[in-house]
Design a protein that fits this description.
alpha/beta, Rossmann fold, seven-stranded mixed beta sheet, about 40% helix
């Protein structure tokens, strides 16, 4: 494991203790938007096997298993996977979710075209150290006609954060390479992320044999509104439908903290 991935793994091992509570407290609307996007592209066959790559504590694996799918959950963090094992056992989903430690940049344990669908949520492509290698692996293991869905950090959002810090060198590096060191709770957990533009993300998928079916921003409007933190379910429902109306509109992508892309693996020649 290289230095980048050691930091990523250590950070997520440490974060695993509070990850779920942090996620559902601060990202409940993200969860609903992501789930809506996933549901649009699920395999019709409930016997299909789905790979949840970099799936952490199993948030999406559990959602999919509850729908009846079989899931293979992987992550580079043993701490995250231990939390996933606890939840899967408690929910008695052991027969539907297989849990394995794995690096999305190298998955020799999986055969070619093994999965009907591949998820890569939570932005692993942004911090895996080599997003091009990782996407090749995700495409390799998905079946022709199968779906790959991935979320990534948005370069416009990273630029906005750096603008507030007035860090000229970091801004220049981000604009030229897409890379930036993002702050973490502890200095030893700071690692480089790659923040994408929508065009770069589209090119990454298309150059690896995926036809892009959808790109959305998460979130494009809600976080900019003062009512975002409201506990009123009526307001939260309004925000949810507001996001659904505008999150696939390219004009609003720059407002999003994250981008999510959906690609379908091209069928081979003659098929």
């Amino acid at each position: 494991m290289n230095e980048q991935m050691k930091k990523v793994s250590a950070h997520h091992d440490w974060w695993s203790e509070t990850y779920d509570s942090d996620y559902f407290e601060h990202f409940a609307l993200y969860h609903r938007i992501t789930l809506d996007n996933i549901r649009r592209f699920l395999p019709n066959d409930k016997g299909a096997i789905i790979l949840d790559a970099g799936g952490g504590t199993g948030i999406w694996s559990i959602e999919l298993a509850r729908m009846g799918y079989r899931v293979v959950l992987t992550d580079i963090s043993e701490g995250m996977l231990n939390k996933a094992r606890e939840k899967v056992s408690e929910l008695k989903l052991d027969n539907q979710i297989e849990i394995r430690i794995s690096d999305i940049c190298s998955m020799p344990e999986f055969g070619d075209e093994q999965f009907a669908m591949v998820l890569c949520e939570g932005d692993p492509l942004s911090y895996c150290g080599n997003h091009r290698v990782a996407v090749k692996e995700l495409v390799r293991v998905v079946q022709p006609g199968g779906i790959v869905i991935a979320s990534v950090d948005n370069r416009a959002a990273a630029l906005n954060w750096l603008r507030k810090k007035d860090d000229h060198n970091a801004i220049q590096q981000l604009l030229q390479t897409g890379e930036v060191v993002m702050p973490q709770e502890r200095e030893e957990f700071c690692y480089v992320i790659h923040a994408f533009t929508p065009d770069e993300l589209r090119e990454l998928f298309e150059s690896n044999g995926l036809s892009v079916e959808r790109i959305i921003g998460k979130l494009v409007i809600a976080r900019r509104l003062a009512c975002f933190k409201s506990k009123d379910p009526i307001i939260q429902e309004w925000l949810y439908h507001l996001e659904l109306k505008y999150n696939d509109n390219p004009a609003f992508y720059p407002w999003a903290g994250h981008l999510e892309i959906v690609g379908r693996k091209n069928l081979g020649p003659g098929t």
